[in-house]
Amino acid sequence: MTEYFSTEEKTYQERIKRFELAYTHTMYYLAQVYKNLGQNERAATYCHSTLQRQLKLNQYSPMEWALNAATLSQYYITKGRYMEGRHCLSAATVISGLAGEVPSEAAAQESETECERREQLRQKRAEIARCWIKYCLNLLQDTKKLLEDNIGELDNDRQEELKRARRLEEEEEEKGRKSALLFGSEDTFDLIASLEEKVSCLFPLDFAEARAVFLVGQNYVTQAKEYFQMDGYVTDHIEILQDHSSLFRALAFFEEDLERRCKMHKRRVDMLEPVCIDLNAQYYLMIRRQLMFELAETYNEMMDQKLTLANRQDDSQSLDSHTIKKFNHLCSSSAKYFQMFIDSLRSPEGKVPEHLEEEVLRPALVARFRVARLYSKLMCSTPSAQLDNINKALEHYKYVVQYCESHPEAGSTVETELELSREMVGLLPLKINRLKARMAMNNITD
């Protein structure tokens, strides 16, 4: 106390600075306390204030501050607060630039200090890039949820309704900015604001707006992959690829041209398929399963879109051989990856598990259901091939029904699929018998 009330200016100023720093540390510790108590909103508020005070007092390490701001953005994103999330990320990018240029490889080889600095700068900037990817991806996905109808397509009425409400939304954004606790100083505020202007924080309501968000995300995918390469960062690299694939999928929702939409899904296949094939199942089984399932679903989406496109252009009864071949290729590819997923659940001896673990229960049963439907959709040139496919479909439908009968708790995870599987288990034997009778009448044998 004596030191604090000293008349010496230098001592007084130092004491004030210590009090300010102590107050900032207190806010930081409160953020940790509230986080551990599960009070995430209060934790985020104290974390935001801590970061703002660190800038104001000029007491921070640029890269550490930037990474903390980028991490905070992820909380705001999950709450749909994209204006705050964008502000945190823009500030993180600008402040990380204050740490200086990344030392060259040559400089890193000559100095251990420069080598360590090069590694830290590249890694942390790549991590900030990954946070930007999540921002763009979540913004597109949240918009999709707002705009899709009950079959997952764009609801034009809803789209027009949201466009009419856009002006009010923009006014609210401007009010929010004025009342928000913004980061920055005289040196950095304009840079942060300039970066914010490059990506919207409003829901993109048409393809052009969605594409602008997509391109920002894709740019950060490129940046993140420069550091997180397959050689040395397998898991991180594949997660970035999966996010890139998800960006394409989200953008495809806004594309009305089915041919172009199919090309976007083809890009997803091209980036994921080689990785899935080459990945060592012994070490990366869970990741490989994720890729199998996504590839199966992607091929399935392409198949549905190709058939819709073909039916628009011509009568479904007169599809040309090229269209049928393309459709069957997509159908078979989807079934192949769903089957690979199912087979990955087998024991080393090749046995189907009697009990499915909770984390794979729904995907395993959905995969069975989807394979059954895909076998039913294959366009066959001979009755014997059609009969073979229907029998395979019936086998998978039966598995879903029988598993849920022997494990009643599983039924609630696949209610729709179970209901349809029961229906098909009743209908397909009749179809099989009719097909066999027709084959017998025509003296057709296998």
Automatic annotation (TrEMBL):
BP-aspect Gene Ontology terms: central nervous system projection neuron axonogenesis; microtubule cytoskeleton organization; neuron projection maintenance
Q: Which GO terms describe its cellular component?
A: cytoskeleton
Q: Where are the transmembrane segments?
A: none
| Keyword Cytoplasm in annotation | yes
Q: Where in the cell is it found?
A: Cytoplasm, Cytoskeleton
KW Coiled coil (keyword) present: yes
Ordered alphabetically, the record's keywords are:
Coiled coil, Cytoplasm, Cytoskeleton
Note the coiled coil stretches, chain numbering.
137-178
Query: What is the superkingdom listed in this entry's lineage?
Result: Eukaryota
Q: InterPro entries under this entry? A: KBP
The similarity annotation says: Belongs to the KIF-binding protein family.
Name the UniProt record assigns to this protein: KIF-binding protein
What is the native source organism of this protein? Scomber scombrus
Its organism's taxonomic lineage begins at:
Eukaryota, Metazoa, Chordata, Craniata, Vertebrata
